Amino acid sequence: MRSLFSLSLLTSMVAVVLAYVAKATVIEPIVCVSLFILVFSSRKDENSLLLTLIFAVVFVLEVLVAFGLKYMVFPAVESYYYENIYAFSIQLILSLLLLFLLRHRMTISVILTRGKSASVFEKNYAEGPLYFLVIISALVDFLALMENFLRNLERLGVNEETAKLFWEFTFFYDYFEYLKAVPMLLCVLLLYVGLIVRTKRQPIQN
Question: Is 118 contained in some domain?
Answer without folding.
Answer: yes
